[in-house]
Amino acid sequence: MDNLTLTLQQAAIKVLQDYRDFLGHDPESELHLVFDEKTHHYILLETGWHKNQRIYGNLIHLQIINGKIWIQQDGTEIGIANELLDRGISHQQIVLAFKTLERRKITDFAVI
Questions:
Q1: Residue 26 has pLDDT above 90, yes or no
Q2: Average pLDDT, whole number, for the chain?
């Protein structure tokens, strides 16, 4: 694994761990960190039950593709991209994959 991919991987993992810790513990649900370091998928998943209703959701899904972190899903209020920026990842190394290509073009982040 090259140094750039390793740096992006470490940032993705740390951001997800920090976000999980920030959300804290809920007795009715669990937060799961799912890391596939071979295909470079990093996911924060919530499962559980609340008043007989199933909780199952992908809160955050990051993927490293061609030297960039692609944000496939962002269920945060402030935006996980801001957390990545705080960790030293540049705007041009972050792709807002959950936005259309046209919307990406008007952001400060990478288009592809």
A1: no
A2: 94
Q: How far is the C-alpha of 62 from the C-alpha of 40, rounded, in Å?
A: 8
Structure tokens at 88: 């030293």
Q: Domains plus CATH for the chain?
A: 3-104 (3.30.310.110)
Phi/psi of residue 93, nearest 5 degrees: -105, 5
Query: Is residue 99 exposed (0-12), middle (13-18) or buried (19+ Cβ within 10 Å)?
Result: middle
Alpha helices in the chain, H assignment, sequence order:
3-23, 80-86, 101-104
Q: CA 93, CA 68: separation in Å to the nearest integer? A: 4
Question: pLDDT band at 57, cuts 50/70/90?
Answer: very high
CA distance 26 to 4: 35
Single-letter amino acid code for the residue at 32: H
Token digits of residue 109: 């982040």
For 27-43, the pLDDT digits (tens) are 889 999 999 999 999 99
